[in-house]
Write a structure and sequence with these properties.
There is one protein chain. By secondary structure, the protein is mainly α. It has a domain of 93 residues: Muramoyl-pentapeptide Carboxypeptidase, domain 1 (Orthogonal Bundle), CATH 1.10.101. 53% of the residues lie in helices and 8% in strands. It is built from 5 helices and 2 strands; from the N terminus they run αββαααα. A two-stranded antiparallel sheet has the order 1-2. Strand 1 and strand 2 form a beta hairpin. The longest helix is centred in the last third of the chain and has 28 residues. It is elongated. It starts with a helix and ends with a helix. 21% of the residues are buried.
């Protein structure tokens, strides 16, 4: 009986975990250029196509923004280490469930609900921050020159 219970538990865990991992057949072929789609579990329990972040949009900077947004809402307790870990995935899924969002993928609805920039918007923000840092460094250098 113990063996049967262990087997059933393993089967349930495997089925649950595999539902979180997108399979090749879960991705929509011939998507619009620059957009990606995958099947997600909808709040009412049926799978449907949702727009997700394309792999090229999931950068270390984006993951840090994701961790920060989840942590500020008390869904993520881990380190801000730019790693898309199991803890981040679990926090993301819990956020999706509690906010009745499509689950199982990093979809644009979820990212928008977390108020995280991505894609061109994030690139532009990073460029502005880099430019501002350069200006600040130049200003600091100019001030040091004047003092000398």
């Amino acid at each position: 009986m113990k063996i049967l219970n262990c087997f059933l538990s393993l089967f349930i865990i495997t089925a649950f975990c595999s539902s979180l991992i997108a399979q090749p057949e879960d991705f929509k072929k011939n998507s619009e250029p620059g957009k990606c789609y995958a099947k997600s579990m909808m709040p009412d329990g049926h799978p449907d196509w949702t727009e997700i972040l394309c792999p090229s949009q999931i950068t270390n900077t984006f993951i840090l923004e994701l961790q920060t947004a989840l942590k500020s809402r008390n869904y993520y307790q881990g380190e801000l280490d730019k790693q898309y870990s199991d803890d981040v995935r679990i926090a993301l899924k819990n956020f999706q469930i509690e906010n009745q969002l499509p689950q199982g993928q990093l979809n644009t609805e979820t990212v928008d609900a977390l108020e995280i920039m991505y894609g061109k918007e994030l690139d532009e923000k990073l460029k502005r921050e880099k430019k501002a840092a350069k200006q600040a460094a130049k200003e600091e250098k100019r001030k040091k020159k004047i003092k000398s």
